[in-house]
Amino acid sequence: MRTKSILTEARQIETAVTLIQLGARLQVLESETDLSYERLLRLYKEVSGKSPSKGQLPFSTDWFMTWQPNIHASLFLNIHEYLNKAAELEDIDIVIKAYRLYLEQIQAQGLEPLLSITRAWRLVKFIDNGMLTMTRCSKCGGHFVTHPHEIAKHFVCGLCNPPARAGKGKNAGGLHIH
Ligand SMILES: [Zn+2]
């Protein structure tokens, strides 16, 4: 089994620094490394030049179900699933790699990344514990983040069926998910 404990300390520091650079919340570092809170706090201040934001992580699945966030989350998760099958990497390294590829794709389209690394990490946890899943769109065939038990036969994604208030082709228009 792949667990965080097999990471050496040097690797853990490297992982923590990478996560901080990508904007991860301190709670992500606490969960993914065995480094002490004090150590992580020092590291965070050193790398980011500021104190970590306080307060709870957003622990609800609701955000992932709203229109544009859902498209961004689905794009990330498709990349993540692909890497998860293809590469022999630590779980957290797959999240980091998938997140970087997500950023590349979003920026290549001239879009703002709506999904933070913290939310991306959280999304993978929601998938792992069965609170969210992926369902195939009955129109375009792309796989999208949904609640479990979505009826695949009738499911239509946010790209095929954008809400009426959405501007024509704006923001999400350039994205394709397969
Ligand atoms: Zn679709």
Summed up:
By secondary structure, the chain is mainly α.
What does this structure look like?
The chain is mainly alpha-helical and 178 residues long. Helices cover 48% and strands 4% of the residues. The chain folds into two domains: 4-48, no CATH class; 62-146, Orthogonal Bundle (Arc Repressor Mutant, subunit A), CATH 1.10.10. The protein contains seven helices and two strands; from the N terminus they run H-H-H-H-H-H-H-E-E. Strands 1-2 form a two-stranded antiparallel sheet. Helix 1 packs antiparallel against helix 2 (26-32) and helix 5 (67-86) crosses helix 6 (91-108). The longest helix has 20 residues, at 67-86. The protein is elongated, with a radius of gyration of 17 Å. Bound molecules: zinc ion. Zinc ion (ZN) binds at residues 137, 139-140, 142, 156-157, 159-160. The site of zinc ion has 8 residues, from loops. InterPro entries: FlhC. Keywords: Activator, Bacterial flagellum biogenesis, Cell projection, Cilium, Cytoplasm, DNA-binding, Flagellum, Metal-binding, Transcription, Transcription regulation, Zinc.
